[in-house]
């Protein structure tokens, strides 16, 4: 699968050149003419890297970067600013809003490709770390839930045994099927609790169209 790149550039010829360069280098490329149009594109397109001009009408590259870095869905996207500004003050301003890299126009093709490759590596590493942290949190949550269920489950089992011992044999015989069903259900819950406590990986599976559940086996 091709890595996805979004180019945000208002200058038609520059946008065309960048799109052709990246497409020839086996990237899936989508373009936008300003930050506002880019936000519409991002509703259905999830790039690993965004290359955006600083100076554009409607919404410039820095404003777009500021919006995206505050959005959990896009904050890990690697953001490269293209600019004719080369002062330290301008670079600091860009870094303060979350830009990951800068390239001064006119852009040298090989340097742009190298920066994009670097951005993709960083994006992939950040997502791997995010997945590891998520898996760790799920495992810790599963173990906590398992322990919390285990205590009342044990109390329930003891209470059920006491009830069985206290009732008359004739009544117990009438309720034997119910007792068997309850005991079987308790055993299933206990097995599930043990699987939660000793869960080794945080795999999930679809439960409904918009929900997932932990897979315990």
From TrEMBL:
It comes from the Bacteria. Keywords: Phosphoprotein. The modification 4-aspartylphosphate is found at residue 53. This is histidine kinase. Pfam families: HisKA, Response_reg. Residues 4-120 form the Response regulatory domain. The keyword ATP-binding does not apply. One of its GO terms (molecular function) is phosphorelay sensor kinase activity. It comes from Stygiobacter electus. InterPro entries: CheY-like_superfamily, HisK_dim/P_dom, HisK_dim/P_sf, Sig_transdc_resp-reg_receiver. PANTHER family: HYBRID SIGNAL TRANSDUCTION HISTIDINE KINASE C (PTHR43547:SF2), TWO-COMPONENT HISTIDINE KINASE (PTHR43547). Its EC number is 2.7.13.3. Signal peptide: none annotated.
